[in-house]
Amino acid sequence: MSDVSQVLHVKGRVLVGPEDVRDELWVVGGRITYERPRTADDITTVSGWVLPGLVDAHCHVGLDAHGPVDEVTSEKQALTDREAGTLLIRDAGSPSDTRWIDDREDLPKIIRAGRHIARTRRYIRNYAHEIEPEDLVAHVAREALRGDGWVKLVGDWIEREVGDLTPCWPRGAVEAAIAEAHRLGARVTAHCFAEDSLRDLVEAGIDCIEHATGLTEETIPLFAERQVAIVPTLVNIATFPRLAAGGEAKFPAWSAHMRRLYERRYDTVRAAWDAGVPVYVGTDAGGSLPHGLVAAEVAELAKAGIPAVDALSATTWGARSWLGRPGLEEGAPADLVVYAEDPRADVRALADPLRVVLRGRIHA
Questions:
Q1: pLDDT > 90: what percent of the chain?
Q2: CB 16 within 8 A of CB 326
Q3: Cα–Cα distances in Å, from 90 out to 22, 112, 124?
Q4: Are 37 and 7 in contact (CB under 8 A)?
Q5: For residues 113 and 131, what is the distance between their CA atoms, to the nearest angstrom?
Q6: Is residue 283 within 8 Å of 59, Cβ to Cβ?
Q7: Which long-range contacts (CB under 8 A, 24 or more apart) does 23-28 make?
Q8: What is the H or E stretch that residue 172 is in?
Q9: Region label for 249, one of left (φ > 0), alpha (ψ between -120 and 50) or beta (otherwise)
Q10: What is the C-alpha to C-alpha distance for residues 297 and 279, in angstroms, rounded to an integer?
Q11: Residues 335-361: tens digit of each pLDDT
């Protein structure tokens, strides 16, 4: 790891934006500048194709398949993301207190959504606050204050008596809860696999939907009109056939539904993007999936038919703007990733970073 007191000279092709390409930048005092320092005794030079630090907009640090994890495990998760070039994480729900990570200069920056808020017995055990609709506003208010400008709802889940995915919340409850979050300055996102919860959530004013596999030709225009973002987590949707097989004997309708959502996943994402729905990269790492999958998720967006530059923007320029964080602007913190090849030509280049620079320090 380099010393932040060093001056770093990054040259090659600096992708400040999709159309803004420069030949070099400098890092002085941990921040980006495009003006050559007048004097510098200790200069380190790095060459290649440069992107802002990647964004994983649906990631869970401090969580695994069974619930909260200890700090040693959380540290390993965060380091794995950093090594993959993910330097900004929107933690879309975690029962662990990971505020200590904010004091670590070597770990990615995290934007937290507090803990998941779910209906009683309608989500993964040990993950969420499990409550009834009359308590939703109070819990949203609490998590809005606990998080970093986001709150995470579980919008649908399997209802055992029905045997399939159903909405978790009445329309009036989510309207009041989203209004309260907005009053407190927080945005709201929701886990949604199926179709039936989407219209109510969007018309109630929600800001984002996770997974969004249930989008249809009826709801996509509503998302586009209101600019409600989606984070498709296609690397997670790839697990649907396995999940469906595991539940088929007990819940055949749910299993068939999950397979249908899986089979049309690429068409769903491409139709949303074509309609102008904002699409961002998220991996859903930290539940059943490992960390460090951001390059794989970008490749999945490209496979769905989203052009390479737009798939890159979904984890770089566009994602950082959406989350209110800087990229490679003058004076911004020096969070960047260097590649040997042009990732605009082939997004698979993201899987092999040459150098990761976090807060001005080089990490191998």
A1: 96
A2: no
A3: 28, 6, 20
A4: yes
A5: 17
A6: yes
A7: 25/50, 25/328, 27/334, 27/357, 27/360
A8: helix 171-183
A9: alpha
A10: 12
A11: 999 999 999 999 999 999 999 999 999
Maximum CA pair distance of the chain? 71
Mean pLDDT of 9-28: 96
Cα 80 to Cα 72, 293, 357: the distances in Å are 12, 9, 14
| Nearest by Cα to 80 from 225, 293, 234 | 293
**Which of 109, 8, 11, 79 has its CA nearest to residue 326?**
109
Residue indicated by tokens 């819940």: 251
Torsion of CA 263, 226, 127, 79, to 10 degrees: 80
268: closest CA among 344, 194, 206?
A: 194
Radius of gyration of the chain from Cα atoms?
21
What is the DSSP code string of 25-59?
EEEETTEEESS--S--SSEEEEEEEEEEPEEEEEE
* Rounded-to-integer distance, Cα 360 and Cα 93, Å: 28
Single pTM value for the model? 0.97
